[in-house]
Specification:
Elements lengths: L1 H7 L1 E7 L3 E7 L10 H22 L8 H21 L7 E6 L2 E7 L3 H12 L6 E7 L1
């Protein structure tokens, strides 16, 4: 069933307003009658999580003096998200990464206090990060 689902759908990664990377479900053209209720529930959950993550980013107000500063923070967000994904510490958890003038904020939930500490350490090891605010819960 999973193989069939993967054949019917694809994901697209988009850069949103130069600030964050989000993944959205791209639906195939044509009717969706063949979609079962469990697939619909998974899609709803995924869409809800994406909307929550977008909302979390919109809560912070950033004041940039130049587009270069904004772009630098966007690059750091992408680099930290990549480092966390490569580390695997946030796999299966909704973690939001934000950046303000080089200071990374991690928010969301992870499996344990040790994972929260590891995520913070991973983020702080990314070149260009000047500090990390760890707001992760478990």
């Amino acid at each position: 069933m999973i193989r069939k689902l993967l054949e019917q759908r694809a994901t697209a990664t988009l850069l949103i307003a130069g600030l964050s990377i989000a993944t959205y479900l791209v639906m195939p053209a044509g009717p969706l009658e063949a979609q079962d209720s469990s697939t619909q529930a998974q899609t709803s959950t995924f869409q809800s999580r994406s909307q929550e993550e977008e909302h979390a980013h919109s809560d912070t107000i950033h004041h940039y003096s130049s587009e270069a500063s904004r772009a630098h923070d966007a690059m750091l967000i992408a680099a930290v998200k990549t480092a966390l994904a490569n580390d695997g510490v946030t796999r299966g958890h909704a973690v939001v990464v934000d950046c303000d003038h080089g200071t990374i904020t991690l928010a969301g939930a992870v499996a344990s206090p040790a994972d929260a500490q590891r995520a913070s350490q991973t983020a702080s090891n990314v070149d260009g990060v000047v500090g990390v605010k760890n707001k992760l819960t478990w």
